[in-house]
Design goal:
The complex is a heterodimer of chains A (286) and B (276). Chain A has 14 helices and no strands. By secondary structure, chain A is an all-alpha fold. Chain A is globular and about 65 Å long. Chain B folds into two domains: 43 residues; 228 residues, MetI-like fold (Orthogonal Bundle). In chain B, helix 4 runs antiparallel to helix 11, helix 6 crosses helix 8 and helix 10 runs antiparallel to helix 11. Chain B contains 14 helices and no strands. With 276 residues, chain B is an all-alpha fold. The chains are: A mainly alpha (286), B mainly alpha (276). At the A-B interface, helix 2, helix 3, helix 4, helix 5 and helix 6 of A face helix 2, helix 4, helix 5, helix 6 and helix 8 of B.
Chain lengths: 286, 276
């Protein structure tokens, strides 16, 4: 197409091709290949080298199965918490005016900006027996540090922004006429929400939950502080991969990493589908 | 008539509004603000003098230096990549554009620890390039190059994803006009495109810096965590925590927190500018 456009005698519209295409695309591809693609291929090649039987033996070992179960359970808890909290925050930040709203909105970005190790350190200390929250929860018989609950808490904290920030713009774009019509027809606020608002934000909400879930599955920094890292009890999959590396068991590390990579790519695909569904929904609403 | 005045039970919905705002504020204070405040409370719990001596400890200073160097290498490269990617995707049409955008976003969905493992399998002693690197006496893993490379992986999408949507929304009419007037590629970029995207670029660079400085999982795989040599600031936080030096860990963490807060403030300022 480019070649045809630069031929002499081509229509003036051919001038639409701006300079720098080869340079910019070349730079992009080179960077992505060197930094992202080749390392990921190295992991996949290592997986191929292990072979299906070896792969299955590593992945189905009791310790690995326990680690996957713990990771999935905690990630589900964290995602459910964020699904509800994120929906509440998006609703409150879009629909209501109150003092301190901008600060509350800015706080939503804290988990993205704060290094995960710092978040993990702070949460661990807060919830340990002599911390602000632990001092209350511990005597009440709710230990958080070194439990599954602690892992879920760390996952929930680090993935807070996903649901809020995906639902917020959709809620802002929602045509108020739809809700006014529902109210005119005598619908009560809860009915308006469940029948009019919620279906409109559902795709975005699900997309946000999917990314939050993906992030929780891969989270490492915040969790190593709070989990206590006991095999079969509070050892997450990412950490088990890390331990295998320290034991120079590269096959073990690669197999677990490949499972996590597979989860991540599937969830990325699902989230992209949901996002395009959400985009179509928004087009239709206009 | 406003929608609210149409409401059958305004008193009830006002009460619901207050309850929801209250719930949102309380949860956010407990869930987000408290962990943030606690970092400074603990870092300063033994006074400013102890805080200063914790920060000025040679090993901590070395960690700060290593983290700074890493960010100084990674961020400019990432800015260049982000601009190139945005320019290629936003200003041109070619087959595979969608695929390229997905590829740029991939590091977001891959856990940093997986990134670290990928790099170890490529550059480590048992890795694909391991024998060659050893034969040429090149040290990538457990040294600065490894830390930089993993950080580049993790931060790859940051600038591109801020600049790309903006370039797409702005279209390329202005650049086309510049071409018609005989401007060179470089002139078009610096005089037309750059002024249009400078705030998004700055914001992307700030986010990239915050992420580069705070990277933990990937770096902990490739750095080897050698005290005073290859431990970056986030790794140093973990080291101090494992040494049961909580106040020291919080002091080191507070410097990272300050960087995060600066990033958030820049974001708030730029959003105010956008709204104005």
């Amino acid at each position: 197409m480019t070649r045809a456009a630069t031929q002499p005698g081509a229509p003036i519209r051919a001038k639409r091709v701006l300079p720098g295409f080869t340079l910019s695309l070349g730079t992009t591809l080179l960077y992505l290949t060197l930094i992202v693609l080749i390392p990921v291929i190295a992991l996949i090649l290592k997986g191929a080298e292990i072979g299906p039987a070896g792969f299955w033996r590593i992945v189905s070992s009791p310790r690995a199965v326990a680690a996957f179960q713990i990771t999935l359970t905690a990630a589900v808890i964290a995602t459910v918490v964020n699904a509800l909290y994120g929906l509440l925050m998006a609703w409150v930040l879009v629909r209501y005016e109150f003092p301190g709203k901008r600060l509350l909105d800015a706080l939503m970005d804290v988990p993205f900006a704060l290094p995960t190790a710092v978040a993990g350190l702070s949460l661990t200390a807060l919830f340990s027996a002599n911390g602000w929250f632990g001092a209350v929860l511990h005597p009440a018989g709710v230990p958080v540090v070194y439990t599954l609950l602690g892992i879920a808490l760390a996952m929930a904290f680090t993935s807070i922004p996903f649901v809020v920030r995906t639902v917020q713009p959709v809620l802002e774009d929602l045509d108020p006429a739809l809700e006014q019509a529902a109210v005119t027809l005598g619908a009560r606020p809860w009915t308006v929400f469940t029948r009019v608002v919620f279906p409109a934000i559902l795709p975005a909400w699900l997309a946000g939950c999917t990314t939050a879930f993906a992030r929780s599955l891969g989270e490492f920094g915040a969790i190593v502080f709070i989990a206590g890292n006991l095999p079969f009890q509070t050892e997450i999959a990412a950490l088990l991969a890390f331990i295998r590396l320290e034991e120079f068991d590269y096959n073990g590390a690669a197999a677990i990493a490949l499972v996590l990579l597979g989860f991540a790519l599937v969830l990325l695909f699902v989230s992209n589908l949901l996002q395009s569904w959400a985009a179509r929904y928004r087009e239709g609403a206009r | 008539m406003t929608p609210r005045s149409l409401n059958p039970a305004p008193g009830q919905s006002r009460r619901a509004e207050r309850a929801l705002i209250g719930l949102a504020v309380v949860l956010t204070l407990l869930f987000v603000a408290a962990p943030l405040a606690y970092i400074f409370a603990r870092a300063l719990s033994e006074g400013w003098q102890v805080y200063a001596s914790n920060i000025l400890h040679p090993v901590t200073l070395h960690a700060i230096w290593l983290t700074t160097i890493t960010a100084l290498i990674v961020v400019p490269l990432n800015v260049a990549f982000g601009i190139a990617a945005a320019w290629a995707v936003a200003k041109h049409r070619f087959p595979g554009r969608g695929l390229l955008v997905t590829m740029i976003e991939i590091p977001f969905s891959i856990s940093p620890i997986i990134a670290g493992i990928c790099y170890l399998l490529l550059y480590g002693r048992q890795g694909l390039l391991g024998p060659w690197l050893q034969a040429n006496d090149l040290q990538v893993m457990f040294a600065l190059p490894g830390i930089v490379l993993v950080t580049m992986f993790v931060t790859a999408p940051f600038v591109a994803r801020e600049v790309l949507p903006l370039m797409q929304a702005q279209g390329s009419e202005q650049e086309q006009a510049a071409v018609t007037l005989g401007a060179s590629g470089w002139q078009i970029f610096t005089r037309v495109t750059l002024p249009n995207i400078k705030w998004a670029l700055l914001y992307g660079a700030v986010l990239c810096t915050a992420r580069a400085v705070g990277e933990f999982g990937g770096v902990s795989v490739v750095s080897g965590n050698i005290r005073g040599q290859t431990n970056t600031l986030p790794l140093h936080v973990e080291l101090l925590f494992n040494d049961l030096n909580a106040v020291g860990a919080f002091a080191a963490a507070s410097t990272l927190t300050l960087i995060a807060l600066v990033a958030l403030m820049v974001k708030a300022l730029l959003e105010g500018r956008k709204a104005a």
